[in-house]
Amino acid sequence: MEAGQAQALRSTTRRIMPVVSLNLIIYVVIGLPMAVIPIFVHDVLHCNTVIAGFAVSLQYFATFASRASAGRRIDTQGPKPVAVLGLALGIGSGLLLLVAGLSAALIPVSLLCLFISRLALGWAESWASTAAIVWNIRRVGSANTAQVISWNGITSYGGIALGATIGEQLSHLGGGWGGLVTLGIVSTVLPAIGTALARAYPAVAPIKHDAPAMPFSKVFRLVLPHGCALAAGSVGFGAISSCLALYFAAERWPDAAQALAVFGMVFVIVRFVFARQIGRIGGTNVALISLGVETLGLLILAFLPSAEAATLGAAVTGAGFSLVFPALGVLAVDRAGAQNRGAALGAFSVFLDLAIGISGPLLGLVIHSAGYMALFIFTACVTFLGIVQVLRLKRAARA
């Protein structure tokens, strides 16, 4: 029986891989400038930390704004055309990043191009990533939803880790604005390859139902309790993605991209090894453990000020955040039914986008006012509120 289950798992994984590779491409593109943009805005364009954090977080506001349209288009048109359009937006984002680097001497023009590039990339993430999840669920069946979401997360944060490492190395080729130009070229080529691959994969038809689709506002209310817990846990990720490079630069520590890569690699390993625990011990239990570990990682960052401790804190934070989304996501998405799976996934993901989008400028303001220690203490407190919310969910489930 165990041999048969292992064979079935391998078969499912092989079917997931082609489509999930599209998700990997879009997240490598997201990771490429992650450690470079805050430094470019702060050191090359001479803007403050609030603007630097905002430049990173702007992507997530666009992702948030486009989730509803992504979910509805997937449910009505099927996931393939949505994925193709998302990757095409990624091409536009890369071209604008290239222009932002070339126009660095004209600060307002460079900032405008960079901001529009981030908005386009956020829209690309929303459409391509959500479509990849639903596309694979339709290919392998709803019984494998947790596995699909887990593989999407592995490629998401693995892609960010890989992209951040590559991007940090490429940024040295031209130095300052020249590095951003190089990243813009790579960020244009990769989604172009992804678009060609997506067109080659077989499509799946949208599900037809007699009942009308549930309004997005109702879907949003259904996933709200789980989404609030996800939002609390996502602020820790926002601190890592928006502020870790600035923290290293302020302390004059090298290898900020390496710390981001460690965060992503630990995230991937934990999700790969422990994702099945969601089905074994329950989503709420996994979420409680995960948020506890994430809180510990943020406290390490707060109270142990060294490059090695910061890298360790980022790793522990990544380990904790790894399973928060699938642990709560499987429970949240099932509440809306198969007909509204795309909308439910989009609505649930809104909480991730909104939390990270707000955290960039907010945490930049905390840094400006009170420093980096206060930043990580604040994010640890928010993550602890996520633990409280999951405990409420657990009590409600018992009742």
UniProtKB/TrEMBL annotation:
Regions that span the bilayer: 20-42, 48-70, 82-109, 115-137, 149-167, 179-201, 222-250, 256-274, 286-304, 310-333, 345-367, 373-393
One Pfam entry name: MFS_1
Keywords carried by this UniProt record: Cell inner membrane, Cell membrane, Membrane, Transmembrane, Transmembrane helix, Transport
Domain Major facilitator superfamily (MFS) profile: residue ranges: 180-399
Top-rank taxon, per record: Bacteria
Residues forming coiled coils: none
Compartments it resides in: Cell inner membrane; Cell membrane
Primary residence: membrane
Membrane topology (UniProt): Multi-pass membrane protein
Gene3D superfamilies the UniProt entry points to: MFS general substrate transporter like domains (1.20.1250.20)
Family: Belongs to the major facilitator superfamily. YhhS family.
Record-given protein name: Uncharacterized MFS-type transporter AA0535_0934
Phylogenetic classification of the source organism: Bacteria, Pseudomonadati, Pseudomonadota, Alphaproteobacteria, Acetobacterales
